[in-house]
């Protein structure tokens, strides 16, 4: 029979309030839909009418808007302020060069960010969430179910929901089995909320909103509102992402420099006035010195280094969803992971069916299969449970038993239930983890102990053990989602399944530990099964912690306990998250690799969430890194790419800041010692511009092998300490140059002095770029950039442009002396850096 909706006098945008008050059938009619779903052509027409199912705030930012946004950066603000001051005192050269610096860095930055965002958006598309929709090719055709991108959903579409799905739009439930949803992003409630497909609705039990996610159970629902019409869009409750450790580190360094930039001009002015009697004429110089401190290319180098790393990873199928996460991957020192599918192949195979006395008993398997069959068929989850499938594959026919209702596996209660009619009687069949099932059974204390010991023995062989129990169920007690709460069950026995350890896991685990990463296994499985699997993979297991025993510990005690453990078992989703938070509180940078709905909370709690492409939607949405497959070797690749990119950023910061700090100290000191300013403002700014441009090559530098061997994090304090030391050395080289120019070469007049110092400065910058790095090899871009920098320094004073910058040609002896100073500086730098980087294995960057 074809289901024919009554009057099709449907408004194009039915008010949600109307739908909330209606029965299932009335809601379907209002939406001009039916349980067999929309016809494809109708869905297309609706898509044109309603638009894509995209939240308004999620649209891409345009290039001009990005350019305008880059002006809001603190460095740019200070630079513009200094440019304004220069313009006010009619120092047009200084103001002009500052504007040029700002324009260059803003254009480069917004262009880099635009390109990086476009490529990460394209990569994100590859792992975008989909919805299982029921549609018909034509009015009379049978409906089919298929996955479509969430943005293609329209009001009236009939969708299926299962554990781990993100609710793709605002929906009205048509059928639900054991459905619980997590709707914290909308209501703040942290506990999962049960939902039912009632015909006479009370409250919003029968509605699920976009932004919530399915924790357990399954449902069929009709889409009531999409895109801007959803409650989430209306409430602007889109979750704000917390600032990552990397963002905080970069901000920390930036603000330290910004403070210095603001302080330098007044200090320089006062010192010049007091010691040299100079007035406002020293202001352009003071401004130029402050500008000289800025690492203008910081945002560009950061974006380029991270975008390059994630582009390389994408070629291997690893997708980094937000750039800063690549740094965080490189910083991971503890990798928490689930067991199933990560350490095992996730291809369970049925082994045995064992009665309470330990002997084989086919009846246990029969009940297990009845439970699996009816939970799969009545609940009809979009993705069938692997354990249920394995049981059905290995079980004989289970006879004439009719399913009445079912509550699919719930990762919190760890049981699944089916209500069946067996002959004339109703019977509830419960299957699940050993402890929650035994807890629900009527057993004498010795029998309970014997059953638990039997389960331990089976689990010690590395088998997955499911307990099975049954009970008569009076027909007048229908509430299925209360089935799991049944007590007084009769214990039937155990079924066991084998899930072989993954053959690739031992090598991948060994590779991770060579990179200084400690693996920790957080699983919902039995302690003995988990311990045996880990031992088989060569992991040193130590004490196996049972998460149930951690419940009463304080956060500090928990941190202590899990800090020592390698395997934490019987974890509920929230316990996995608590363990991750405890490890972070101990100062670890924690990565979490998982793929199930039971991994979601931990994924969100971790510094970096990692999942395979086949993970449930909600986990994939929360993850920062998505792998082509659940493969520990791919995590290793991501770690290497992260450390390589961070290594390049750290090198850039060390070089840029050491050189800039050195120059600032030298200029301020020389400005006070000399009767004239040691450099013209325009010269300071030109050499700054050349140095900035050359440093872009550092984003493409080679990786230091030592950096790849240990977790690498941007540590502002360590970088600033490094900069103070090497900045001081750079200042000494500058001051030696001043001494040579004044006393050895007897340079007469400011232009010759300025030129000598300009040449030396450009050459030392080239030397610093080559030597202040942890590796001796030079990449092609770096070789070209440093060569160009040195060439500009040596040739600009000899070129026709020299006079425009206040430079003059120097005699050959001056060049020789300058080269000698730079050579001496280079040798000293080489000796110090080799020593500094030789024992880098023991130091932080
Ligand atoms: N379909 C199912 N029916 C009944 N019991 C199940 C089912 N799936 C899992 N269980 C039981 O619940 C326990 C916890 O399962 P859960 O999915 O939380 O973790 P897991 O898959 O064992 O491990 P991991 O967290 O490492 O992926 C399992 O050890 C098993 O005893």
TrEMBL record:
It is found in: Cell inner membrane. Keywords: ATP-binding, Cell inner membrane, Cell membrane, Magnesium, Membrane, Nucleotide-binding, Phosphoprotein, Translocase, Transmembrane, Transmembrane helix. It catalyses: Mg(2+)(out) + ATP + H2O = Mg(2+)(in) + ADP + phosphate + H(+); ATP + H2O = ADP + phosphate + H(+). The keyword Cell wall biogenesis/degradation does not apply. Its EC number is 7.2.2.14. Residues 18-91 form the Cation-transporting P-type ATPase N-terminal domain. SMART domains: Cation_ATPase_N (SM00831). It is a multi-pass membrane protein. Coiled coil: none annotated. The chain crosses the membrane at residues 75-108, 250-271, 283-307, 720-746, 752-772, 784-809, 815-833. One of its GO terms (molecular function) is ATP binding. One of its GO terms (cellular component) is plasma membrane. It is an enzyme of class 7 (translocase). The keyword Oxidoreductase does not apply. Its main location: membrane. Belongs to the cation transport ATPase (P-type) (TC 3.A.3) family. Type IIIB subfamily. PANTHER family: CALCIUM-TRANSPORTING ATPASE. Mediates magnesium influx to the cytosol. This is Magnesium-transporting ATPase, P-type 1.
């Amino acid at each position: 029979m074809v289901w024919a909706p009554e009057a099709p006098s449907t408004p194009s945008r039915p008010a949600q309030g109307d739908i909330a008050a209606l029965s299932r059938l009335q809601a379907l009619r209002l939406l001009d839909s039916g349980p067999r779903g929309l016809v494809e052509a109708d869905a297309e027409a609706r898509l044109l009418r309603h638009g894509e199912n995209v939240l308004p705030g999620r649209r891409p930012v345009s290039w001009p808007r990005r350019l305008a946004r880059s002006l809001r950066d603190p460095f740019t603000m200070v630079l513009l302020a200094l440019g304004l001051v220069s313009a006010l005192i009619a120092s047009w050269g200084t103001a002009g060069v500052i504007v040029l610096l700002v324009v260059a860095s803003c254009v480069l930055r917004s262009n880099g960010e635009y390109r990086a965002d476009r490529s990460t958006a394209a990569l994100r598309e590859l792992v975008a969430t989909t919805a299982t929709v029921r549609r018909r090719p034509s009015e009379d055709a049978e409906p089919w179910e298929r996955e479509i991108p969430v943005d293609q959903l329209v009001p009236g579409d009939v969708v299926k929901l299962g554990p781990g799905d993100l609710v793709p739009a605002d929906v009205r439930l048509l059928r639900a089995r054991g459905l619980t949803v997590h709707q914290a992003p909308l209501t703040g409630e942290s506990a999962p909320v049960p939902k039912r497909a009632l015909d006479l609705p009370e409250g919003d039990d029968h509605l699920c909103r976009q932004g919530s996610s399915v924790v357990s159970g399954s449902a069929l629902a009709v889409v009531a509102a999409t895109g801007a019409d959803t409650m989430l869009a209306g409430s602007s409750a889109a979750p704000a992402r917390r600032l990552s450790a990397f963002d905080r580190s970069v901000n920390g360094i930036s603000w330290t420099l910004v403070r210095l930039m603001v302080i330098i001009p007044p200090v320089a002015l006062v010192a010049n006035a007091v010691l040299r009697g100079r007035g406002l004429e020293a202001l352009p110089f003071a401004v130029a010195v402050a500008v000289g401190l800025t690492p203008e290319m910081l945002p560009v180098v950061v974006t380029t280094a991270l975008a390059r790393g994630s582009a390389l990873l994408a070629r291997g199928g690893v997708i980094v969803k937000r750039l800063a996460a690549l740094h965080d991957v490189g910083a991971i020192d503890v990798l928490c992971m689930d067991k199933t599918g990560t350490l095992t192949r996730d291809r369970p195979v049925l082994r045995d069916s064992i009665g309470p006395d330990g002997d084989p008993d086919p009846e246990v398997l029969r009940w297990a299969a009845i439970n699996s069959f009816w939970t799969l068929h009545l609940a009809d989850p979009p993705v069938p449970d692997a354990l249920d499938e394995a049981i059905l594959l290995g079980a004989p026919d289970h006879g004439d038993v009719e399913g009445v209702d079912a509550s699919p596996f719930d990762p919190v209660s760890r049981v699944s239930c089916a209500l069946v009619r067996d002959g004339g009687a109703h019977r509830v069949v419960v299957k699940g983890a050993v402890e929650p099932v035994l807890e629900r059974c009527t057993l004498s204390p010795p029998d309970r102990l014997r059953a638990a010991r039997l389960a331990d023995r089976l689990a010690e062989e590395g088998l997955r053990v499911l307990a099975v129990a049954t009970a008569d169920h009076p027909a007048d007690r229908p509430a299925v989602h209360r089935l799991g709460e049944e007590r007084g069950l009769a214990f039937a026995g155990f079924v066991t399944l084998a899930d072989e350890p993954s053959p690739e896991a031992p090598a991948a685990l060994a590779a991770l530990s060579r990179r200084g990463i400690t693996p920790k296994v957080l699983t919902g499985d039995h302690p003995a099964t988990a311990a045996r699997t880990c031992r088989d993979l060569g992991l040193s297991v130590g004490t196996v912690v049972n998460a149930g025993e951690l419940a009463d510990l304080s956060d500090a005690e928990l941190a202590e306990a899990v800090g020592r453990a390698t395997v934490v078992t019987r974890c509920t989703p929230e316990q996995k998250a608590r363990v991750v938070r405890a490890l972070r509180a101990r100062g670890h940078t924690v990565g979490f690799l998982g793929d199930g709905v039971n991994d979601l909370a931990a994924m969100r709690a971790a510094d970096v969430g990692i999942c395979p492409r086949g993970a449930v939607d909600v986990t994939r949405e929360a993850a920062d890194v998505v792998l082509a497959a659940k493969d520990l070797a791919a995590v290793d690749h991501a770690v290497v790419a992260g450390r390589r990119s961070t290594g390049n950023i750290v090198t850039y910061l060390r070089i840029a800041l050491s050189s800039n700090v050195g120059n600032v100290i030298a200029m301020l000191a020389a400005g006070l010692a000399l009767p004239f300013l040691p450099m013209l403002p325009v010269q300071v700014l030109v050499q700054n511009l050349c140095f900035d441009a050359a440093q872009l090559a550092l984003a493409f530098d080679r990786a230091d092998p030592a950096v790849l061997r240990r977790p690498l994090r941007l540590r502002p304090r360590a970088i600033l300490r490094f900069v103070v030391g090497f900045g001081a050395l750079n200042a000494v080289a500058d001051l030696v140059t001043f001494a040579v120019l004044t006393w050895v070469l007897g340079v007469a007049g400011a232009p010759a002095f300025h030129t000598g110092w300009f040449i030396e400065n450009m050459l030392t910058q080239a030397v610093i770029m080559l030597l202040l790095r942890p590796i001796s090899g030079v990449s092609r871009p770096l070789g070209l950039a440093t060569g160009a920098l040195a060439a500009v320094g040596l040739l600009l004073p000899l070129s026709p442009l020299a006079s425009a910058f206040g430079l003059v040609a120097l005699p050959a002896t001056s060049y020789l002396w300058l080269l000698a100073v730079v050579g001496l500086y280079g040798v000293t730098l080489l000796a110090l850096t080799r020593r500094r980087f030789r024992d880098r294995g023991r130091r932080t960057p």
